Amino acid sequence: MEASKEKTNKIMTAAEAVRRYVFDGATVGMGGQTIGRCAMALIHELVRQKKRNLTLVGCNLSINMDILVGAGLVRRTECGTGNLERFGPTFAWRKAIEEGKLVNEDYSHLGMVTRFLGGEMGLPFMPTRSLLGTDILSKKSATTGKKFEIVANPWDPDDQVVLLPSLNPDVAIVHVQKADEEGNLIIEGFLTHEPEMIRASRAVIASCEEIVPSEEVRKYPERTTIPYVYVNAVVPQPWGAHPTSVYRYYQHDPEHLREYQNSAREGGLAFEAYLGKYIYSCSSFDEYLEKVGGLKKYNQLRAEMMKVL
Q1: How far is residue 167's CA from residue 165's CA, in Å, rounded to a whole number?
Q2: What are phi and psi of 11, to 5 degrees?
Q3: What is the pTM of this model?
Q4: Where are the alpha helices (DSSP H) in the chain?
Q5: Could you give the angle at the alpha carbon of 229 between the alpha carbons of 224 and 230, nearest 5°?
Q6: Which end of the chain, N or C, is less packed with Cβ atoms under 10 Å?
Q7: 238-251 pLDDT, tens digit each
Q8: Partner residues linked to 245 by β-bridges
Q9: Which long-range contacts (CB under 8 A, 24 or more apart) does 265-268 make?
Q10: Angle at 301 (CA atoms; ends 298, 305), nearest 5 degrees
């Protein structure tokens, strides 16, 4: 499955995009960072469609990863870390690792970006100085037995570099501020690993806060972060990153993040109740948005964002 290079209308629902581009056993590239711009509407759809045996890859995996792990859909993660910043660790993920239900391969953030860069360039591995001097290099891969190689610089035998295997996700899922119907993506604020990950992926699903006319994209080409050739599906979904934030649109929702963390920390029936209330009983992300506060809540979160702009 390769990204579409055609200038076609790529707008579809989250249900259609996930059904078409995410399959059981897929390696999924995860966009967003801690409590910012996670593709939560798409994550909810993965849970509703029960996509299983997933491998999740990214830099700082957060609530987007933790929900999928808690729902029992993930067999492996490869990342820099997992947490919800000041809201605490990713409890479902930590519990699954401790109980031996999930394999995690630990890299640095820069190490993961390096691996996506290698995938983007069509190379089997990439050199980096990241990880040198850390105990991550004392660990072997739990599945392949080999997650890195240390070699000497061919031009300076006393200089060591680390070779990391390149990474090409089957599909990347991201949430962005703006997109047009052809799949041109405009990301504002932090970018982290997403440009490299998107270009390395075989398919890309992007949800967005708003659709903008293609004429506007062509008028200001310098604002386009990812061109349409890399993108397969565009899913319009205002507030699609809730309860995480979207720069220039809304702040994160601390009340709901704490509610999620309480259920994840307790686990068991409490976590199942969270999934039942906010995902399984909702036919769409819009129904979830009504349950977590509706217009009053969103006006408040938007006002909070306006204060910091």
Answers
A1: 7
A2: -75, 130
A3: 0.95
A4: 14-21, 40-48, 63-70, 91-98, 109-120, 194-200, 214-219, 254-266, 268-275, 285-291, 294-308
A5: 85
A6: C
A7: 999 999 999 999 99
A8: 36
A9: 265/88, 265/91, 267/70, 267/91, 267/92, 267/95
A10: 135
